[in-house]
C-alpha cells in the first residue's frame, strides 16, 4: 500500500470515527471509501469489521458501570449475540463476490434508512426515560421473543453490521427498559460480542486486508478522540445530514458504477 492510499484510508476512518462520536453512522463513510479504493466489497466489509472492533470494545468498557444488576440479561443476551454473529459471518464467507456485489448497495441503503430513523427512535426512547423510571436493581431475564430478535440482529451484524446499534436500542426500549445509559451498556455489550466473533471468523478465513485494517484502526482512533471536541463546534444536525447524503450517494454509486 502506498503512502497516499494509507493516508486516504486513515483520513476516511478518522472522519468516520469523528462522525460516530458526534452522531453515529461512521460506517457509511468508511465502507464506501474502502470499496472506492479498489478493495472488493466482501473483503472491505470483513476488513472494516476487524478494524472497528477495538472501538466496540472501548465503548462497552466505558459503559461497564451501567451494567450493574444486568447479569441475567448479559448471560442470556450473550448467547444469541455470539451465535448470530458467527452465523452472519459464515453466511458472508459463503456469499460469492458477485452475489455480494449485487446485494451490498441495498445493505448500504438499508443502513442509511436506519440512520434516518435513528433520531425519531432516540426521541421516543428519551420520552420514555422522562416519563418512566426504571428500577435501579437487577433486571428480569429477557423474554424468548427478545432473544430471538437479538439473534436476528446478530446475524445481520455478522454479515454487514451497519445500524445494529439502533436496532438493539429499539428492541430494548420495546422490552420496557427506560434507563438509556443501561440500555447503551447492553447495546455496546451486544455489539462487542457480535463484532468479536465476526472479526475472529474473518481473520481465520484470511480475507482481511491488513494494511487497510491497520490504517483504519489508527484513523478511527484519532477521529474518535477528536469527535467529542468536534461535537462542541459542529451542529449534529449538519453532521447527520452529511452522513445521510453520503449513504444515499454511496448507494447510487454502488448501483450505477460498479
How would you describe the overall organization of this protein?
The chain has 258 residues and is mainly α. It has one domain. It has ten helices and no strands. It has helices at 3-22, 27-36, 41-62, 71-94, 97-131, 144-159, 164-174, 180-205, 210-233, 236-256. Helix 2 (27-36) packs antiparallel against helix 3, helix 3 packs antiparallel against helix 8 and helix 3 packs across helix 9 (210-233). The longest helix is centred in the middle third of the chain and has 35 residues, at 97-131. The chain is globular. The model is unreliable at 129-133 (pLDDT under 50).
How many helix segments? 10
Q: Which oligomeric form is depicted? A: single chain
Number of strands: 0
| Helicity range | over 70%
Computed over alpha carbons, the radius of gyration is 18 Å
* Number of separate structural domains: 1
Overall pLDDT metric = 78
Order of helices and strands: HHHHHHHHHH
- Poorly predicted regions are 129-133
Sketch the major β-sheet. none
| Structural class category | mainly alpha
Give the N-to-C terminal Cα separation: 22 Å
Amino acid at each position: 500500500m502506498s503512502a497516499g492510499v494509507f493516508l486516504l484510508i486513515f483520513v476516511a476512518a478518522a472522519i468516520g470515527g469523528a462522525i460516530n462520536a458526534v452522531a453515529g453512522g461512521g460506517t457509511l463513510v468508511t465502507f464506501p471509501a474502502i470499496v472506492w479504493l479498489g478493495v472488493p466489497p466482501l473483503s472491505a466489509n470483513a476488513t472494516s469489521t476487524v478494524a472497528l472492533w477495538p472501538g466496540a470494545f472501548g465503548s462497552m468498557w466505558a459503559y461497564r458501570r451501567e451494567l450493574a444488576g444486568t447479569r441475567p440479561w448479559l448471560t442470556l443476551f450473550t448467547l444469541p449475540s455470539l451465535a448470530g454473529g458467527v452465523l452472519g459471518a459464515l453466511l458472508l464467507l459463503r456469499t460469492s463476490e458477485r452475489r455480494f456485489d449485487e446485494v451490498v448497495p441495498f445493505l448500504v441503503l438499508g443502513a442509511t434508512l436506519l440512520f434516518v430513523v435513528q433520531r425519531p427512535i432516540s426521541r421516543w426512547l428519551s420520552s420514555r426515560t422522562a416519563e418512566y423510571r426504571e428500577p435501579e436493581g437487577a433486571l428480569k431475564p429477557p423474554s424468548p421473543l427478545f432473544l430471538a430478535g437479538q439473534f436476528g440482529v446478530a446475524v445481520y451484524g455478522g454479515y454487514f453490521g451497519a445500524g445494529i446499534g439502533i436496532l438493539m436500542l429499539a428492541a430494548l426500549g420495546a422490552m420496557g427498559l427506560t434507563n438509556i445509559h443501561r440500555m447503551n451498556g447492553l447495546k455496546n455489550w451486544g455489539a462487542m460480542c457480535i463484532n468479536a466473533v465476526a472479526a475472529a471468523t474473518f481473520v481465520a478465513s484470511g480475507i482481511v486486508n491488513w494494511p487497510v485494517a491497520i490504517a483504519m484502526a489508527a484513523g478511527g482512533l484519532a477521529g474518535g478522540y477528536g469527535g467529542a471536541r468536534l461535537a462542541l463546534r459542529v451542529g449534529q444536525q449538519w453532521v447527520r445530514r452529511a452522513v445521510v447524503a453520503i449513504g444515499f450517494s454511496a448507494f447510487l454509486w454502488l448501483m450505477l458504477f460498479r
